[in-house]
Design a protein that fits this description.
By secondary structure, this protein is mainly α. It is built from 7 helices and no strands. The chain has 2 domains: 44 residues; 62 residues, lambda repressor-like DNA-binding domains (434 Repressor (Amino-terminal Domain), Orthogonal Bundle).
Length: 119
Amino acid sequence: MFSNEVEYEAAMKEILSLMNKGEGNLSKTEAWKLRKMAVAAEEFEDIHYPLPKPKTIPEMVELKRFQLKLTQAALAEMLGLGKPKLSQILNGKREPDVPFLKAVYQKLGVDPGFLLDNA
Protein backbone atom coordinates (compact mmCIF):
# COMPACT_ATOMS: atom_id res chain seq x y z
CA MET A 1 0.00 0.00 0.00
CA PHE A 2 1.17 3.51 -0.72
CA SER A 3 1.49 5.89 2.20
CA ASN A 4 1.10 9.10 0.22
CA GLU A 5 0.21 10.70 -3.11
CA VAL A 6 3.86 10.90 -4.25
CA GLU A 7 4.33 7.13 -3.91
CA TYR A 8 1.00 6.54 -5.64
CA GLU A 9 1.92 8.79 -8.60
CA ALA A 10 5.34 7.13 -8.97
CA ALA A 11 3.70 3.71 -8.96
CA MET A 12 1.14 4.82 -11.55
CA LYS A 13 3.97 5.89 -13.87
CA GLU A 14 5.66 2.52 -13.42
CA ILE A 15 2.37 0.69 -13.98
CA LEU A 16 1.84 2.60 -17.22
CA SER A 17 5.38 1.84 -18.34
CA LEU A 18 4.90 -1.88 -17.71
CA MET A 19 1.50 -1.90 -19.40
CA ASN A 20 2.96 -0.18 -22.46
CA LYS A 21 5.41 -3.07 -22.84
CA GLY A 22 2.47 -5.37 -23.46
CA GLU A 23 1.40 -8.32 -21.35
CA GLY A 24 3.18 -10.85 -23.54
CA ASN A 25 6.46 -8.96 -23.28
CA LEU A 26 6.68 -8.88 -19.48
CA SER A 27 8.98 -11.13 -17.53
CA LYS A 28 7.41 -13.17 -14.73
CA THR A 29 8.92 -10.74 -12.23
CA GLU A 30 7.50 -7.73 -14.07
CA ALA A 31 4.06 -9.33 -14.36
CA TRP A 32 4.07 -10.11 -10.63
CA LYS A 33 5.18 -6.57 -9.81
CA LEU A 34 2.49 -5.11 -12.07
CA ARG A 35 -0.22 -7.15 -10.35
CA LYS A 36 1.00 -6.15 -6.88
CA MET A 37 1.22 -2.46 -7.76
CA ALA A 38 -2.22 -2.51 -9.43
CA VAL A 39 -3.79 -4.00 -6.30
CA ALA A 40 -2.03 -1.46 -4.09
CA ALA A 41 -3.14 1.38 -6.39
CA GLU A 42 -6.74 0.16 -6.24
CA GLU A 43 -6.62 0.03 -2.44
CA PHE A 44 -5.16 3.55 -2.30
CA GLU A 45 -7.85 4.84 -4.68
CA ASP A 46 -10.63 3.19 -2.67
CA ILE A 47 -9.48 5.07 0.42
CA HIS A 48 -8.49 8.43 -1.10
CA TYR A 49 -10.78 8.64 -4.14
CA PRO A 50 -13.91 6.68 -3.27
CA LEU A 51 -16.71 6.58 -5.80
CA PRO A 52 -19.82 8.37 -4.60
CA LYS A 53 -22.44 5.99 -3.31
CA PRO A 54 -25.49 5.66 -5.56
CA LYS A 55 -28.49 7.64 -4.33
CA THR A 56 -31.12 6.30 -6.71
CA ILE A 57 -32.10 2.91 -8.08
CA PRO A 58 -30.95 3.82 -11.62
CA GLU A 59 -27.57 4.95 -10.25
CA MET A 60 -27.20 1.67 -8.34
CA VAL A 61 -28.14 -0.38 -11.41
CA GLU A 62 -25.63 1.57 -13.53
CA LEU A 63 -22.92 0.95 -10.92
CA LYS A 64 -23.65 -2.79 -10.94
CA ARG A 65 -23.65 -2.75 -14.75
CA PHE A 66 -20.24 -1.05 -14.72
CA GLN A 67 -18.86 -3.50 -12.16
CA LEU A 68 -20.07 -6.47 -14.20
CA LYS A 69 -18.82 -4.88 -17.45
CA LEU A 70 -22.19 -5.35 -19.13
CA THR A 71 -23.73 -3.44 -21.97
CA GLN A 72 -27.22 -2.12 -21.38
CA ALA A 73 -28.54 -4.80 -23.75
CA ALA A 74 -26.73 -7.57 -21.84
CA LEU A 75 -28.05 -6.19 -18.56
CA ALA A 76 -31.61 -6.14 -19.92
CA GLU A 77 -31.24 -9.77 -20.95
CA MET A 78 -29.78 -10.71 -17.57
CA LEU A 79 -32.69 -9.05 -15.79
CA GLY A 80 -35.24 -10.57 -18.15
CA LEU A 81 -36.39 -7.16 -19.37
CA GLY A 82 -36.84 -5.55 -22.73
CA LYS A 83 -34.11 -3.08 -23.69
CA PRO A 84 -36.59 -0.18 -24.07
CA LYS A 85 -38.00 -0.73 -20.57
CA LEU A 86 -34.55 -0.82 -18.98
CA SER A 87 -33.48 2.27 -20.87
CA GLN A 88 -36.58 4.17 -19.80
CA ILE A 89 -36.06 3.25 -16.14
CA LEU A 90 -32.38 4.17 -16.19
CA ASN A 91 -33.16 7.50 -17.89
CA GLY A 92 -35.92 8.38 -15.41
CA LYS A 93 -38.69 8.22 -17.99
CA ARG A 94 -40.36 5.27 -16.28
CA GLU A 95 -40.71 4.28 -12.64
CA PRO A 96 -39.22 0.95 -11.54
CA ASP A 97 -41.95 -1.65 -11.15
CA VAL A 98 -42.04 -4.74 -8.92
CA PRO A 99 -40.70 -7.18 -11.58
CA PHE A 100 -37.78 -4.82 -12.24
CA LEU A 101 -37.01 -4.39 -8.53
CA LYS A 102 -37.24 -8.14 -7.97
CA ALA A 103 -34.83 -8.82 -10.84
CA VAL A 104 -32.39 -6.18 -9.57
CA TYR A 105 -32.46 -7.80 -6.14
CA GLN A 106 -32.16 -11.39 -7.39
CA LYS A 107 -29.75 -10.95 -10.31
CA LEU A 108 -27.61 -8.01 -9.15
CA GLY A 109 -27.74 -8.59 -5.40
CA VAL A 110 -28.85 -5.05 -4.60
CA ASP A 111 -29.85 -4.69 -0.96
CA PRO A 112 -33.65 -4.87 -0.67
CA GLY A 113 -33.56 -2.12 1.96
CA PHE A 114 -31.94 0.22 -0.58
CA LEU A 115 -34.60 -0.72 -3.14
CA LEU A 116 -37.47 -0.09 -0.69
CA ASP A 117 -36.00 3.18 0.56
CA ASN A 118 -35.56 4.49 -2.99
CA ALA A 119 -38.61 3.08 -4.78
